[in-house]
């Protein structure tokens, strides 16, 4: 988790109470060697959180950010806690697999698109096993994100990688929207 508040730690473990976590965080407790830190959220507000004692060296070891776009699985631990996702990235996400089709905002199985340190869109793609290809069935850029040719090209590269991972051919995106 890297850095988290007590509620996020509780949701991560999913079997303890907030009070249990607060007990863990007390000085002198076995887990109490965590560092108290303040983290600025996507909305500009600061929140008390906790981090491992070596957080500074961990952060220093992170490679420089790239402009690659990555398709994020809806069940990826990085986005599993939806309130944490919103607090840190300002990104609201709901997996609509179990939402009736008429009530879905996006689609059945929509993947968030991460570019560097922000979410830039959502895409729905599915494998066509009989035809052997990946089909893009929906695409939604995030509000305020300009979707130029360079970003579209980077998404095509990621879709090709994603298709290969699934043993499929990449989806053609001839009518991909750009600004």
The total of helices stands at 5
Rg, rounded, reads 19 Å
Strand content: 15-25%
Our measurement of the CA-to-CA distance between the termini, rounded to an integer number of angstroms, reads 36 Å
**Shape summary:** elongated
User: Order of strands side by side in the largest beta sheet?
Assistant: 4-5-6-7
Instruction: Quickly give the structural class.
Output: alpha+beta
Contiguous runs where pLDDT drops below 50 for at least 5 residues: none
How are helices and strands ordered from N to C?
Answer: EHHEEHEHEEEH
Helix content: 25-40%
How would you characterize the largest beta sheet? Answer: 4 strands, antiparallel
Secondary structure: number of strands: 7
Average pLDDT rating:
87
Number of domains: 2
Give structural notes.
By secondary structure, this protein is an alpha+beta fold. It has 2 domains: 3-60, no CATH class; 69-165, no CATH class. 26% of the residues lie in helices and 24% in strands. The protein contains 5 helices and 7 strands. The chain has a 4-stranded antiparallel β-sheet, with helices on one face. A 3-stranded antiparallel β-sheet has the order 1-3-2. A hairpin with a 2-residue loop joins strand 5 (110-115) and strand 6. The chain is elongated and about 60 Å long. The relative contact order is 0.11. The mean pLDDT is 87.
């Amino acid at each position: 988790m890297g850095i988290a508040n007590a509620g996020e730690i509780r949701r991560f473990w999913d079997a303890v109470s907030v009070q249990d976590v607060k007990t863990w965080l007390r000085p002198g407790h076995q887990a109490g060697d965590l560092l108290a830190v303040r983290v600025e959220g996507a909305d500009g507000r600061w929140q008390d959180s906790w981090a491992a004692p070596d957080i500074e060296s961990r952060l220093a070891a992170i490679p420089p950010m790239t402009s690659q776009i990555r398709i994020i699985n809806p069940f990826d631990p990085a986005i599993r806690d939806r309130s944490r996702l919103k607090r840190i990235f300002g990104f609201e996400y709901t997996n609509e697999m179990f939402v009736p089709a008429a009530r879905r905002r996006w689609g059945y199985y929509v993947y968030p698109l991460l570019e560097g340190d922000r979410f830039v869109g959502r895409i729905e793609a599915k494998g066509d096993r009989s035809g052997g290809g990946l089909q893009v069935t929906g695409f939604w850029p995030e509000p305020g994100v300009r979707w130029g040719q360079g970003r579209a090209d980077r998404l095509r590269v990621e879709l090709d990688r994603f298709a290969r991972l699934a043993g499929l051919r990449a989806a053609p995106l001839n009518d991909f929207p750009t600004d």
